[in-house]
Amino acid sequence: MESNKKAANTFLDISVFLTGFNKMELLGTGMLETYFNVVMNMNNVALVESFLAESEKILAKNQGNAEKINNEILHKLMPDSLYNGLAKNIITMWYMGNWMNTVINPQSYVQGLIWGVAETHPPGAKQPGYASWASAPNTVK
Amino acid sequence: MINNKTYDVVIVGSGISGAVMAKTLTQAGKTVLLLEAGLTAGISLDRNGDYQNYVDYLNTFYTASAKVPNSPYPNIKDAPSIDVLDMQPISGANSPSTNGYLVQAGPLPFGSDCLRGPGGTTLHWLGSTPRMLPNDFKMKTLYGQGVDWPISYEDLMPYYEMAELEIGVSGDVNAIHWPEASNKQEQVELKNKFYGKEYVFPMEEIPTSYLDGVFTKLVAEVNSKNPVKVSGKDTKIKFSTTPQGRNSVPNKQYPYRDITWDSKTKKLVLQKDKYWCPETKKVVDGSLEEKYEYLPVGATWDPNTGQRCEGNASCVPICPVQAKYNALKTLYKSDGDKITIKTQSVASRVLYNEKTGEVTGVEYKTYHTADSITYDTNIAKGKIYVLAASAIENAKILLASNAANSSDQVGRNLMDHLCLLTWGLLPEKGFPFRGPGSTTNMSSFRDGDFRKEHAAWICPIDNWGWGWPVFSPGSDLSNALAKNMFGKELRDQLADMLPKQLLLHYECEQLPEPDNRVTIDPAYRDQIGNYRPVIHYDASDYMKKAFETAKGINNQLFKATGTQDFTFYSPTLTADYVGYQEQGYNFWGAGHIVGTHRMGASKKDSVVNKDSRTWDHDNLYLVGCGNMPTLGTSNPTLTMTALTFKAAEAILKQLEK
Amino acid sequence: MNTPFKQPNDPKRQKLIPEAAEIAITTEIASGPKKLKSLLGPSKESFDKKLSELKSQLQTALELEHSTIPPYLCALYSIKPGTNLIASEIIKSVVLEEMLHMVMVANLLNAVDGKPMIGEKETGTNNKFIPDYPTRLPGNVDPSLEIDLTYFSKKSIKTFWKIEHPEGGYAILSQYGKDAKTYKSIGEFYEALTKNIVDLEEIAKAEGKTIFTGKPENQVPSEHYYGAGGKIITVYCLEDARRVIDEIVGQGEGTLGSIFSEPYKPGDKRYLLFGSTVEEFAHYFRFKEVFYGRYYAPTDSAHRLGPNKGLPTGEKFEVDWDAVCKMKPNPKMKDYKKGSPLYDKTYEFNKTYSTLLDNINEACNGNAAALRQGITLMYELRYKAVELMNIPLEDGYMAGPSFEYVKA
């Protein structure tokens, strides 16, 4: 559906600013569709729509100026009292693969972004190979 | 009543002690019936079924919200396993705590779990396999504490070597530090005495972690410039690398090929040339074949998978490639013609002749589907019976049967390693959450005169960040989000701090106490009418003094190495919380459950003799950690496996009398 | 209960060279060094030339073993995680064996004092180590069929078995222009290689010498390479050389031409190749298993005119052809604007792959322990490839790895 596609794009765009990862990195997880569906299914439709509408507004108004966008996100999306804490739940989804405390599915666990942040891999998946732990991670130059 | 066949041996349990028994006995030509309480799917006879079942475990693990040791494995109502998540504080309003499988009568909740299912706890164990120290066998004589073992370390040495072959241990005998050695020469002498001049492990040591390197380097600085003070004395902190049952590069010097039964000498022999051939089902001489080289044993579904540790960093609770040893690898070496395995079959009672003491059968209940409330009851018959169901379950079955307990020691002397955890941020990145759970340990306090006053401990360096006490990195994310951090700021903050996390475990040796025990109570039963274990448990001053001393050393160490201390203890952090000298300490159970049917020199104060045979029933043997009279500071699996080979030897001798 | 799995390299494992081919090789030797010498001519120059040709052939073999790896990897990586477990395992086992072959050929080349050149660090830009995809199949197979870097599908699996087809082979050989001769099949190529080694060693032996003069420390021993189907064979003599080729031909390129060239005799035991106790059989048959979603039964005959027509009739397993990332076939870095995120990500993949090739090159040129790092690079490769395949392009396809060599 066209409107769904637009909504998913807004979801992706705002996730970039919420998570601190760029579009390629988020798409690379292959989890966009899953996470978007979880957001739609686990929340009141009106709530999600208004969250996305606000996100769109913030992004359009500030034309890629990261500092301004972040400032608006801090006040208009992040507070727990707004949108049922949706912003933080979205961050948790991308970082941990959890919707709140529940793991969404095996792939979402494996695709959690936090492990890359810690310069490692999800325990039990994406094994790096024998003796890899004996030196600093490859990401270190 | 089906199948009245009488086997040579009936074994209860397919964990490592049951598997070693089954393999050793069947390869020696004896018929074995093995009863396993867990699901049939877990002992698969075909490669694909095995693989599919393991993939299920893995997916269950991925989706578990709390990745505790039993999280990948099914918890069946007909044979429930302990779940640490069920632990609750015991208070006036909550005594006993009946949440979950254990009935916790207190005063402190017992904090460890084990796994009831095919392969037993070796599915979720870490895989560390240090040996006990020689002095551990003489606690009473040397330190006036606990009891002495009826055997010495030297008696157990040949069986340790068998266990190390069976499990497939990676390590370096020269990198094991002896606490009493005061110089390099003494280190070598002790190594030669207690391992042997020529002895090597089957595989080379698992590479130590980068994190180990960072921390041990910092401590080396401290040792030379600003040593830690213990009782006012300058003390250098020493490290050992940890031998483990995890596949690495085969050691070209390792000569042993198999363990075979010699009918003439009535002994199990660690062989260089001879091995048991699975095709001909006979012991053959391999000296004329290609030169022998130890070959790591891979996954049960594919020998090419798991030939080396691949760094999955999830040993507890599951190794995705089975580079870590699990008991199924041993079980599947049994002679298929001699072994009968009945799964979904829970042993409930040992039946015996009141007059003679002779065991006449093991009653067991077979459920047809998981969580079923209906079951069939049958009696397994053998010439000899072996309980290998784990320390708590063995005790429970014996109590339910009123068997083997003339000493009144069954269920008593329940022990564990009480782990005092400390955690902080290193001054530089160590990159945790990588590699096996631990590759190096602080070994200075494994032995010494202080054992007269307080518990000894081994302190592994944990490679997995602050996961255990505070559920990092998820909790670090939550904490940052609670401060409304997001975006690049959040990412950078986590990127800066997660790689610096350090966790240490001070695993303190609990002594045998008669009131730390497993009992049964008709008021508490599981779904098919078997007893639930009722646990009475406490931590003595001997333990608390160790916590105090260890924490004091840790405080100095963190300060001197520039490690920012984040340790905190509170009653809400975990239910095991004790006060001592106006300080509060949390401790966590290590999963090292021992002592409940201990071995001894006299039937007055022990349940089994040094061959693991019960004093009261000539045809009943008990194997597993329950046999251990003291725990020492090592993970008990290697020691109990050595004891199991010794028991298997005694059983074969008895059968062939 | 059976111990169901044989150890790798169990000497009692079934060999897959039909007896006829084995006889052919040994007959050559029996005809004696004099005959061979007369064929070659008496001079040292002609011996040296032939030895040099052998080394060249071995380098070609190296490139041959490598060339199937990128297409097989693309198919493997495109399978959505958690799906098609068995098909994944089968393809993965084939890839691991190709890599094993590559290292063993390098051992063989080192043994005759040649210099393996893997990757393009040392071959220079004139000699492309990685083929340009898409690349074609040789003449006697459907000329419109090409070998692509593309996603897992019936079409790609069919292509793979055509590559492994005993009478098929790979046009790659003609691409290099080093060998004026082309071979009908990979099996035939290895037959010729074996003959050359045997011939040369016979001549050398007649003068009390050997062609196996390479430095022993250049051999890559098995301890640094694990988990593949089989142990690495180190080469110090003719017997070892024959074992290596035996291993390669047995596992992969199978001179199973006979199943297409000979008539079928009912009950012919030579074609009863399958069963759960047989760990490895030719890649050709394994791809057939994936295509049909069925294992071969122990009673199946490999012969195409047998009762099961050479097709698997054993236990079925699930293959979900839709559970794939539809990677755009044959991507190139130049498809993207330089500096764009997709260019960078594709470049990153290529950099990892190139580093891997350089690493294997180093390992095969005297520093065997370097292979340890190679394995960690192999894993990284997978994760980078999967990330690319998760990124949608504008035309409905997904991005994917382009396997182009980039200099450090």
Task: Summarize it.
Chain B contains 13 helices and 25 strands. Chain B has 657 residues and is of the alpha+beta class. In chain B, the strands form seven sheets. In chain B, strands 1, 2, 11, 12, 13, 14 and 25 form a seven-stranded mixed β-sheet that branches.
Report on the architecture of this protein:
The complex is a heterotrimer of chains A (141), B (657) and C (408). Chain A is mainly alpha-helical. Chain A has one domain. Chain A is 59% helix and 3% strand. Chain A has eight helices and two strands. Chain A has a two-stranded antiparallel ribbon. With 657 residues, chain B is of the alpha+beta class. Chain B has helices at 16-27, 47-63, 139-143, 153-167, 184-194, 210-225, 328-331, 391-401, 467-470, 474-482, 487-497, 541-561, 637-655, and strands at 6-12, 32-35, 103-107, 228-230, 233-235, 239-241, 258-262, 267-271, 274-277, 282-285, 339-342, 345-352, 359-367, 375-387, 417-425, 440-442, 457-462, 501-509, 517-519, 534-537, 564-565, 577-580, 583-586, 588-589, 620-622. In chain B, strands 1, 2, 11, 12, 13, 14 and 25 form a seven-stranded mixed beta sheet that branches. In chain B, helix 1 (16-27) packs parallel to helix 13 and helix 4 crosses helix 13. The longest helix of chain B is centred in the C-terminal third of the chain and has 21 residues, at 541-561. Chain C has helices at 19-30, 32-40, 44-67, 69-78, 85-111, 154-164, 172-176, 186-206, 238-253, 258-261, 283-292, 341-363, 371-389, and strands at 135-136, 146-147. A two-stranded antiparallel ribbon of chain C has the order 1-2. Chain C starts with 18 loop residues before the first helix and ends in a 19-residue tail after the last helix. Chains in contact: A-B, A-C, B-C. The interface between A and B is large, with 46 and 51 residues.
